[in-house]
Predict the structure.
Amino acid sequence: MHAYLIAKTAHLFFVFAFVASAFYLPRILVNLAESRDDGPAVRARLMLMGRRLYRFGHVMFGLALLLGVLLWLGYRVFPGFPTMVAPGSGWLHAKLGAVVLMLVHFVVGGRWLKGLDQGRALPSAGTLRWFNELPIVLLVAIIWLVLAKPF
Ligand code: HEM
């Protein structure tokens, strides 16, 4: 059980880092959309921050995913390793559905950021503010599903 708790601690550590990136990238896009009159230096700094955050978020997601798979299927490889995922339990599938939506949201934000390099315009600051709220709804659903395991 000790190894399982270490794996879950590491899973949550990388999940927190990914979620922080997923929450912050839209904020940088909002600032970019509102910084049209702030001069090239400010925009260049915001774009650099966005690119670094986008790369960091992907690495954190990859590590959270690896540890999530270990928590889920580790028992098939490591004798005595527990699992909380009973066969046929739908909570993990529903959770993974919400996780995929969160990753798609992150990639869309990254595409909008990269589009600026090709001269493509960002959506309006208003649209980006709504876009910014989506991960909150998804995260609440993910946490509820994994804690309550309702089905
Ligand atoms: C944004 C992404 C994710 C979030 C926010 C998240 C959140 C969490 C949380 C809060 C827990 C602790 C639950 C508890 O202690 O009862 C957990 C455990 C777990 N997660 Fe994730 N997770 C994410 C991604 C993933 C992925 C991609 C997988 C699988 C491939 C996964 C599989 C698991 C499993 C199997 C557990 C153990 C459940 C338990 O011990 O009760 N998670 N996750």
